[in-house]
Write a structure and sequence with these properties.
158 residues, alpha+beta, two-stranded antiparallel ribbon, 7 helices, 7 strands, disordered N terminus
Length: 158
């Protein structure tokens, strides 16, 4: 068993790991977790085997290849270290929170995104884009429109 699988097992997970977070899902196993990751045991880093397919599936060439070449490994510790305090739960943000759901995301599939939103314990204004993980490359105008619209709505409630 490789290092990531053993750490997930020790933590009691039968889950699929997506970048910085782990989401439990009954259809996935630890074997699925590591199938697209490469562990660098000497350094304690984890890389994605095919960053272009994972993060930039709907991005045109040559931008997709250039962006994929910029992806760096991340620390294995990021998979199992609790995050610090979050601020989205502050009541001042009620009716102002937005989550951008990317429907074709291979890094954070839709069911994982749904789990994040549901598990947060607060209500979100969920905006959906039919893109992969990087709408800032594949649909920048549509993304900008969503950001501007949500900033205006947020400011209007002050």
């Amino acid at each position: 068993m490789d290092l990531l699988s053993s750490q997930l097992s020790e933590a009691g997970y039968s889950a699929r790991t997506f970048g910085l977070v782990t989401v439990n899902h009954p259809e996935l196993t630890i074997k699925d977790d590591v199938s697209r990751l490469v562990q660098e045991k000497q350094t304690g880093l984890v890389s994605v085997k095919d960053p272009k397919a994972t993060f930039f599936a709907d991005v045109v060439e040559p931008l997709a290849s250039k962006a994929a070449s910029q992806i760096l490994p991340q620390s294995l510790l990021s998979f199992n270290t609790p995050s610090s305090e979050t601020y989205y739960g502050i009541t001042a943000y009620d009716n102002r929170r937005t989550y951008l759901h990317t429907n074709q995301d291979q890094a954070l599939p839709p069911f994982a995104q749904d789990a994040f939103v549901a598990g947060s314990g607060v209500t979100w204004n969920v905006q959906k884009l039919d893109t992969s993980h990087s709408p800032f490359f594949s649909e920048p105008k549509q993304l900008a429109d969503i950001v501007v619209s949500n900033v205006k709505a947020f400011l209007a409630t002050y």
